[in-house]
Structures are given as structure tokens and as C-alpha cells.
Design brief:
heterodimer; A: alpha/beta; four-stranded antiparallel sheet; 9 helices; 10 strands; B: alpha/beta; ten-stranded mixed sheet
Chain lengths: 255, 406
Amino acid sequence: MLEIKDLTVEVEGKEILRDLTLNIERGEVHVLFGPNGCGKTTLLMAILGLPNYKVKKGSITFKGVNITDFPTNERVKRGMGMSFQHPPEIRGVKLGDMVNIAQGRKEEKIDENVIDLAKRLNISVDFLNRDVNLGFSGGEVKRSEILQLLAQSPDFAMFDEPDSGVDIENIELIGKIISELMDRNKMPSKRKKAGLIITHSGSIMRYIKADRAHVMLEGRIACSGMPDEITKNIMENGFEKCVELCVRSEEVGAE
Amino acid sequence: MTKKEIIERAGRAKAKKAALGEDIVIENYVTGKEHDPLNSLGDFPEEYQQDLLDAGIEPSEKDRSGSFLQQDCSVVFSTVKYRGLELMSTTDAMKKHDWLEDYLWKAVPVDIDKYAAEVELDQTHGYFIRSEAGRKVTMPVQSCLFITSDKIGQKVHNIIIAEEDSELHIITGCSVSHAVNSALHLGVSEFYVKRGAKITFTMIHNWSRGMEVRPRSAVVIEDDGVFISNYILMTPVKSLQMYPTAYCVGRNARATFQTIIYAHGDTKIDSGSRAVLRGEGSRSEIISRVIATDNARVIARGDVIGEAANAKGHIECRGLMLSDSAEVDSIPELKATRKDLDLSHEAAVGKVAEEEIQYLMARGLSESEATSVIIRGFLNVDITGLPDALARETKRMFDMSLEKVM
């Protein structure tokens, strides 16, 4: 589904990602760990093709097409979607409007179709009529983002910290919807969608069974492995130690 | 004040320049020939029908309680379909009601500047609208001041009265034919909102590049009265200066001004709204959204003067810049003369944020579609206080105006 090769990305002249390689197959969900500032969000933004994230080297291939130079909306049309960590406020544009836009509908009304989707995330009609992200609480932002992705129903979805600032009750709700969005409720051979999730707490991973986990350090994927193992390792030893252990075990494996 | 005194005062103010806006030579404009009356709005020449629509006027008169059309300096159509509603030219109303002179120049001083004085000295009609006490005329009245001849000076005096506990909704459009290269519109509008009454006034200005425009409007609101103004200008204009003022004289009187301006070409606008809170517990809200592009120059003003106990006023001015050669001045002002009141303002001028465009692109829109959604959103002020049908209608008029510029 997604193939990233030797990707080097600069933001405002500063190199953030260096020679990064990552493959995500159809039906897979990967989770991305790493300390603040290691480049996790940059990776997601670069995959989405936002203009401030300049690809200096390497390539991004999506569904077999090299999309490295494609504008964001072209990538979205081909089936990418993103749940932002800090989405901007847009005055006068309602959350309901965003849902219509995400569905690719020209419809201006917030109709039953939108209301039914919103119900699944415990979002009320009143809330759909609010200007998007304006005065939303942390948890509201996340639910609004997931709602927009649900409307968009992308083949490949990226989630930038979908669980930060969300209360326990809503973590379960969000977790289950994300899980469904990525075909987790289907048998592995039937899964057509894929995803990449950034999370710090890992609490949402209880509801989404990921296939693979990666630890990012200083703009590269420093180690990869089974999600449970990696999580346990990070919890017990911290990021750097975890990477160290990974590298050591690889060396052992090589011998 | 007797009629003689009024004329004397106006005479003395004949050369008095306005406090704001560039000076206009009124003498450059003429009265022009009379136009024949129409049997229906549908009889208005085909070439002008689109301009009527663009000014929010419904030629079929469907869902309207009354219609008024003034072409240049002639009243060509006036009809009422609703009991308890009066609608006619101010000239006819003066003949019909002796008491009407008590309302002339009570809200707007005749000698405030030469434009007001000119309307007194060389008036060419205008409309009179009145709802009788207790009558709730929920279906809107429509009125249109239309200019079809070059070099015309249209000088109208409008009087609008909502008697006690009555309700009046007005859609008014000012429009100009494409054939007109230059013309002048001077419009004095005096509104009287009696105890417990309500007036909503939705005005679309559909001017063109050669128009010079000087409205002079004021509103007097009594106890528990409500006045809501929605103003929309999306077409270019040579020069427009106005500063409508609401005097909330009664207890709990309320005034709301919402202004939406899309200024392009070489448009010059100096537009503000003012509220004077004189009644205990009176309130005002002044909201403006200004977009400036090309070489447009816009001064957006807001002014609240708090003089009464528990008065509350808020100003919200927002500007959006789409060009490096345009200019916006945002000038909110507050004046308080006692301690037990609450006045506030917020003003912001900015650009279409890259981050917002990218967010919308991440939901599948192209860059230009995203920009259009943001601009539409910026101008989208929730209009409150209108009956549902009128709110829908206003939204439709707004969308229509916006489509022309986007």
C-alpha cells in the first residue's frame, strides 16, 4: 500500500527526516513511537504532502504510484486520510460542512447522512453546527477528526495522537471506530485498509491490534518489531534503551 | 421645529462638509426626467430585471407583504398586501398624515452635513413604511431604490415606524443599471422602534464603479424594542461613506448591526455602525466582516457609547486581506460615562491562513476550492432574529452575491 524509500525531508531548511524507509502492506496497521521532536508528525505530514515538508531525497509510493510530487488533495483522492493532532480553527466553516467536504459531497446542508455518522461518535447536531475546532476541547478535537475520517473512509489512514487529551470513556469509543476504519474487525485476509498511528500513551492500542511497531529517533526508524514487545520495552527501559536492545538483538540474530 | 426652521437650518448647512469621507460635488448630479408608473414589478423593463434580483427584490412579489420601487427620482410602483401595514412614498405619506412631520429629522439632524441638508432642500421621494400597533408583519416588505439614468442625483428621505408591539421585516435593495457611468445616491433613513416593537432591516447594496453614495441613517429604539440591521455590499462602488447610529433610549432596547463587505476594484468605503446606549439595560452588538482585494480601501468603524446603568455593548470587526495593494483600517471605539456598564471590542485583520487551506486540502479540496470555502466561512455571519423564511432568503441573497465575486 505505502512504500517509503530513503526519505529525507526538510522543514524550513532544517533536516527532520533522514533516509527513512518504511513499508506498510494492505491490511496492516503500524504504530509509531518515539520521543517528542523525533520527527513522527513530520513523517505523517510528508506522506500527506503538505507544502512545508520538502522532500529532498527518496520517494513515496502509494498503491504502486510514485506520489512524491503530488499535491495533498491528489493524494487524498487516491485514498489517503489524516487525523490531525492540532487542526486549525476555521471561522464560519462548521464541523458538519467538513463532514460533507470529507465525503466529497457538494451538499451544503447538515442532513441525516451527516447526523447519523456523527451519532456514532456521540456528536450532537448542535456540535455539528459549531465552527470547526473553534473552542473545541482536546477530546472534542479528536472525535471531530475521527468523524471526518469516518466520512472520508480512506484506504490508508494516519492518526497523529488520536488519544491525547481524551477521557477513558471516549478512548474506547475512538479506539473502536479507528479499529473499524482499518478493517480490524475483519479476518486478516479480508482486510483491505491500512493505517499508521502515532501514540504516546499506547492506551488506545488496547482497542486496535497493530501488526507492527516502530520507534523513531532523530528522524529515522531506529527499531521495529511486534507491538507488544516494543511497548513493553519502552515502558520498562525508555526509548533509547529500547532501540539499543533492538539493535543488539539484530546483531545476535545476524550471528 | 417648524418646516420653515428646518429649511433654514438645511440652508445654513448647504456647504457643510461631512466629518468623514471625501467631499462630493452634489451639483455634478441632476434630477432627470420622470418615469411612468408600473402596473406590476414584472412590467419593469427586462434589462433591469436581473439588477432587481441582485438587490434582493422579488419581481413576482411572492412572499412579500408589500413592494416599493423608486426609479431615479420617480416612485414607479408601490403596493401593500397586508392589513396593518402602510407603504407609500414619503411625499404621499406627508400628505396623508399630519403627524408625520413630528418624525422628520428627529433621528438624523438636518444640518449634520450637506448631504442631509440636500435631501431636505431637494428631496426626491423615498419610502414610508409603518406597522400599526400590535401588528406582526412577519412577511417581509421589499423596497428598492433604483438608478437607471446617468448623472442622476437620487435624494431620498425614508421614514420607518414600528408602532408599539408591532413587528416589521424589511428587505431593501439599492441597485444601479449597468448603463450608468456615474450617479449619486443620498439616502436619509429614520427608524422609530416603539415600545416592545421590532424592526429587522436587511439591505443589499448593488452599486457599480461610478456610484457615489452617502446614506444618513439613525434609529430610535424605545423600551424593549429591537432593531436588527444586516448590510451586504459585494459590488464595487466609487465612494461610500456611512455611519448609521442606533439610539437605544428605552429600557432594555436592543440594537444589532451586521455588516458584510467584499470590496474590490478601486472601491473606497468608510463604513461604521454606532450605538448610543441611553436606556437602562440597553444592549448593542456590532459585527463586521470586510474582505479587501485589488486596490480597495476600506475603513471599518464601530462605536459604542454607554451612558446608562447595566448597558452592554460589543464590537467585533474582522478583516481579510486578499491583495497587497488593498488597505483596511479597523477602528473600534468605546466610550463609557459611568461605572455600571460593560463595553468590549475585538478587531482582527488577517490573511487566508495556509494552515487552513492545507487542512481543507487534506479533506480532498483543491487549493482554490479550499480558499473559496474559507472566504465563504469568513463572511458567514449567523443572522439571528429573523423569521425562518427571511433568514433562508437572506442566506440565499448572500450566496447569490458571493457567487458573483468568487
